[in-house]
Design a protein that fits this description.
By secondary structure, this protein is α/β, with parallel strands linked by helices. It has eight helices and 13 strands. A hairpin with a 5-residue loop joins strand 12 and strand 13. Helix 1 packs across helix 6, helix 2 packs parallel to helix 4 and helix 3 packs antiparallel against helix 6. The protein is elongated and about 100 Å long.
Length: 322
Amino acid sequence: MIKIMIDAGHYGKRYNKGVVEGYYESEVMWKLHLLLKEALLSYGFEVLTTREDAAKNVDVYDRGIMSKGCDLFVSLHSNSVSGSPSTQRVVVIEPVNGKGQKVAKLIGDAVVKTMALKGNFYLQTTTKKTSKGKDYYGVIRGATDVGTIGLIIEHSFHSNEEACKWLLNKDNLKRLAEAEAGAIAEYFGVSKPESDEDVLKYSDLKEGTLVSIKDGAVYYNGKAIPESILKDNWYVAKKPTSDRVVIDKNESLKRSIDSAIDVKYLKLAEKKKVEEEKPAVKVEIQAEDASVETVQSSGSTALQSLLESIKKLLQAIVELFK
Ligand SMILES: [Zn+2]
């Protein structure tokens, strides 16, 4: 199991005051580290923190050492600079051995994208070393000494008003934690396990249930599903009696595929807003064996002539019974 250690950068409630009333780096980063722990747990990572108690201090080098056996160590901070209130970039400090480059960039990009501050806002990834070429920062040096990738993440500057205000919002912190966990998951190639509510059973479906198709799905017969079909929502054709579910009409009722798919690849879908009429309608007829016939026609004329044919057919039937 992949193990991550999270470190709230400073101890105590009121360390490093920000420019906005009520902001303290120690307190806000403590909150963020708990949210990040929760978000990482939802991906199935094993998550450790450097301490249980916000008031407790552990020497920075020792925090890094504590990450022995972990795959990643992140220390959470907000930055400060005097005399430059507009400075607000995100800084991620990575180990001098170069092993943290990729994950530093992924997390940093996620922070920049989520905070999305208005000014001169960008990501700087950097290293800092001692004259002997070792990592300057204790947490990173400690992590490196036990073979863990150690990062310091500076979530913009609490000496910047916009950043400070942003970080004081609990919902923002939650989004930040989710984004960082997502970046870490991407780095390790991990995706969120589905919760029980997301797993659909065939008995949940009936005729006319609107479903969407999950990424990576194939037809029941194992054949590939074209991209244009994956993107659409589909109505279940009839109440399934097994995991084999037949889907037919699409949400706009303009396409019909009459194809079988395993229920494990389906999700309940919400109705989309009505799309604007497109100039051309592509009608695809999908047989059970997944062979595709495509009829390209110019939208409403094709539909009209189809309706016209049906009308004629009905009239013929009526004539027959006269
Ligand atoms: Zn700090």
